[in-house]
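ok so I'm stuck.
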Amino acid sequence: MKRFWQDVTVDATRGVRLDGKPVRTPGRLPLVLPTDALAEAVADEWRGVADTIDPRAMPLTGLANAAIERVAVDPALFAANLAAYAESDLLCYRADSPPDLVARQNAQWNPPLDWAERRYDVQFELASGVIHRPQADATIERLAVAVATRDAFTLAGLSPVVTITGSLVLALALVEGVMEADAVWAAANLDELWQAEQWGEDDLAADARAAKRAEFDAAVRFLGLL
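replied:
not stuck anymore, here's the structure
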């Protein structure tokens, strides 16, 4: 779609307007944001459109659309789908060799797991390799509650963090301010970065990681504006 507007403003309800007309989601719902900071950031994306709208250059708008159209319709179901990642959280699957990789995983993955166990009164089962090891029902239930208490916009921002990192624990540590974004990213990419150190960087893998990092950073910014 070509740019057809001159002015972008935020109204008293934190709705974004183009030349005074309200912006709507693809499903024709009003694009109304929960905070002034997020409303202005979304408005800035619309101000930054040159000739043609490129959704890839408007990640905050995309996450807001998802919160309004997908999450808010059934937040309990959306939260349950995110909580399911606790069944196979990245941090619970460890290498048994070589010693350097094992030590690095212990150093970066044990602290967030220890925090989550204290914070939510749960116990994680660790496994070596990729063979699935189920977590206790109480662990899944308590982590599900921790996710389900979040509002629709927070759930929308959490979703890409969980899916990109493969870890519900890292996502919760991020949203609760226990870990910084760079530390979360480093922990989530530990295995891949270790492999690159040993055997060299693959260009395609590096490009894919950079694209994921851009999506991850947008979600982190979105959460920070709530």
